[in-house]
Please model this.
Amino acid sequence: MAYPRVLMTSFIANAFGHNLGLAAFTGGAVRFRMYASAGLTAIDVATVQGFCSLTIGIGLATLGGLSLTLEPTIPRPCCICIRAGRCWSGSSCFRA
Model:
């Protein structure tokens, strides 16, 4: 398969998947549509989609682990305070 076609398919699938939500399903549908027209079977497209989902999961787990390792403090709750300590989110405000 030509490299430019793979690049275009990956870009479009990621754009649709992350903007429409449920990236594994919407991106998989876009990948299936574009790769099937190039001659790949459904098993091949499912393998590509599984690999993409696995690498996203590994990347998110790595970033989460690094962020907790490098900055393990618990942040204060964040809310938008409106008039005399009342919070827009309905929770209590913690002032510095």
Notes: Residues 3-70 form one domain. The first strand starts at residue 81 and ends at 82.
